[in-house]
Amino acid sequence: MQKNHKLVYINGKTFEVLLTQTHIQARIRELAWQIHQSYPQEQTIYLIGVLNGAFRFVADLLTYFPQDRQLCVDFTKISSYAGTYSTGEIHPIIGLKQGLKNKHVLLVEDIIDTGLTIQYLTKQIQQQQPFSVKIATLLFKPQALRTSLQPDFIGFEIEPLFVIGYGLDYNEQGRNLNDIYVLKD
Ligand code: PRP
User: Fold this and answer.
1) Which of 2, 7, 139, 140 is most exposed by smallest CB count within 10 Å?
2) For the ranges 54-68, 83-97, 162-176, which has the lowest average pLDDT?
3) Distance 111 CA to ligand 1 centre (A)
């Protein structure tokens, strides 16, 4: 991977900045407050991050939640992308834990594209009879959505373009970038 101040080059593809680190962080600060306020203080949020992409978003949400927020954190790992395309096939790699009955579950995604990953996870969680299931995503591509599920908390709505950075990858590269980049070609 090569990088200058505006462009990133990975395996012959060029990416340009779409959302800056400053913009992303400011929006996550707002989202954390919005999520916090939507759950009464006495309710514990069972936050489940979807690996790999959501690891940075989860970490920053935790940074910006009030520090007395009642919260549990866990992760699940799903894979659906090959290169720059969502394959539509869901592969569970680290499954959901049991024990979500009567809990307030918040699924946290870096991006919702077709929505098939979040639909799969929501169905799996519903089988455990939680009290509620909500969805937070940093990025949302409404034009790519292939399910009727809508996220409850959205950082940014974007065009159906391929993006990397801030946890999102192109063939496992680019997750370390602090800005979010879009495929230029
Ligand atoms: C990405 C992303 C979401 C999913 C969204 O994961 O992190 O989990 O795809 O796509 P969908 O809405 O079309 O289902 P990916 O499979 O690339 O795995 P990764 O997070 O480990 O990169």
Assistant:
1) 2
2) 83-97
3) 7
Find out whether the beta carbon of 50 lies less than 6 Å from any atom of ligand 1. yes
Closest atom of ligand 1 relative to the 115 alpha carbon: 12
Domain boundaries, the chain: 2-183
Q: Looking at ligand 1, which atom is closest to the CA of residue 117? A: 14
Give the active site residue among 68, 113, 152, 185.
Answer: 113
Token pair recorded at residue 105? 């579950």
Helix axes 55-64, 21-38, angle to 10 degrees: 60
d(CA 61, CA 111): 15
Q: Whose C-alpha lies nearest to ligand 1, atom 10?
A: 113
CATH number belonging to the domain at 2-183, selected among 3.40.50.2020, 3.40.50.720, 3.30.1330.30, 3.40.50.2300: 3.40.50.2020
How many whole angstroms from 118 Cα to the centroid of ligand 1? Answer: 9
**CB burial string 33-47: b at 16+ within 10 A, e below:** eebbeebeeeeebbb
- CA 60, 65, 68, 71 torsion-angle sign: negative
pLDDT digits (tens, 9 = 90+) for 131-184: 999 999 999 999 999 999 999 999 999 999 999 999 999 999 999 999 999 999
pTM over 0.90: yes
